[in-house]
Amino acid sequence: MSIAIRQIHPVFVGEVSGIDISKPLSPDEVAAIDDGMLRYAVLVFHDQKLTDEQQIAFTLNFGTLEDARGGNITRPEDRRLQVGMNDVSNLGKNGRPLERDSRVQLFNLGNMLWHSDSSFRPIPAKYSLLSARVVNPIGGNTEYADMRAAYDALDESTKAQIEELICQHSLMYSRGSLGVLDYSDEEKAMFRPVRQRLVRTHPVTGRKSLYLSSHAGAIEGMPTPEARILLRDLTEHATQPAFVYVHRWRASDFVMWDNRRTMHRVRRYDQSHARDMRRTTLAGDAPTVAQQA
Ligand SMILES: [Fe+2]
User: Fold this and answer.
1) Residue 268 to residues 34, 96, 137: CA-CA distances in angstroms?
2) Cα 209 to averaged position of ligand 1 atoms, centre (Å)
3) What's the gap in Å between 115 CA and the centre of ligand 1?
């Protein structure tokens, strides 16, 4: 059995076979996955039954874990999973679906908006890695958009117009667009906007991508409504079907993606049933505003 990657979408996404990621990897396997991420940006693995410890061990082959603090409103004592695991399920600590109107549930619905993980942090995430432990019976697909293909397809005048623009990203912008508008002073401080370039350059490939996310709510030097219309137009462009891969989850699927050149969103699903998805997240290396154009 040796590792192989087959492209399954016209512009990105590879499906990986011939590897058991619950076991320690050989250097060749790590290199093949690293290369695959650079080439395809999203890698799909099937039939990977993982414990949380195995998922963390696999993740650490590709970088260091992101510090998850400041990314949610769940209190530490209400966490279902250990530190290092991002709980992107619809479950409470008791293992049952969250109440429909619970604040955590309403906040988590923001994952159904197009976004790039941790774009609300000064140094946003590198890779996210998601393990499907329990799949919901209805809906819950994850969609991925290739932001490099989206950038490449822009006309030259738009590229010139947006090249130097700096956006402000905050969880309060994405959640605010869903009507979640009440935050404590502590949350307001935690979620204060951060600066991100609208066009970012991949640190390894040197290729440019649009860096969009529902967390983006303002552009420096531009009136807010004008900024939001531009962001909406660019998002509509970037998420047209030609640039989108739809992942239909099976139990024990595992998907990893590069947040530096993709966006993603979850589609609606039956909230009365469990959807147990567990994410690990790798830290990025530098603020996007520090990069050389
Ligand atoms: Fe996400």
Assistant:
1) 31, 18, 11
2) 18
3) 6
Residue in the structure block whose two tokens are 């137009």: 233
The alpha carbon of 149 and the centre of ligand 1 are apart by a number of angstroms equal to 20
Average of per-residue pLDDT across 86-100: 95
DSSP letter at 241?
A: G
Two structure tokens written together for 219: 């552009």
Distance of CA 119 to the CA centre of its chain: 9
Q: 265 C-alpha to center of ligand 1: Å?
A: 7
Question: What b/e readout covers 219-243, taking b as 16+ CB neighbours within 10 angstroms?
Answer: beebeeeebbebbeebbebbbeeeb
Alpha-helical (H) ranges within 197-271 are: 224-238
Instruction: Extract the tokens encoding 283.
Output: 């830290």
If you average pLDDT over every residue of the chain, what do you get? 96
Residue 79 corresponds to which tokens in the numbers above? 């966490």
Q: Are strands 42-45 and 14-17 parallel, antiparallel or unpaired?
A: parallel
Q: What are phi and psi of 113, to 5 degrees?
A: -95, 145
Interval between CA 128 and ligand 1 midpoint (Å): 8
Using the 8-state DSSP alphabet, how is residue 110 labeled?
A: G
Dihedral angle over CA of 74, 115, 221, 237, nearest 10: -160
Nearest to 69 by CA among 167, 190, 189, 185: 190
Q: Which helix (H) or strand (E) holds 52?
A: helix 52-59
In tens, the pLDDT along 153-199 reads 999 999 999 999 999 999 999 999 999 999 999 999 999 999 999 99
What's the CA-to-centroid distance between 180 and ligand 1, angstroms? 18
Q: Whose structure tokens read 């590069």? A: 258
**Are 257 and 128 in contact, with CB atoms under 8 Å apart?**
yes
Distance 111 CA to ligand 1 centre (A): 6
**Euclidean distance between CA atoms 239 and 125, whole angstroms:** 20
C-alpha 90 to ligand 1 mean position (Å): 14
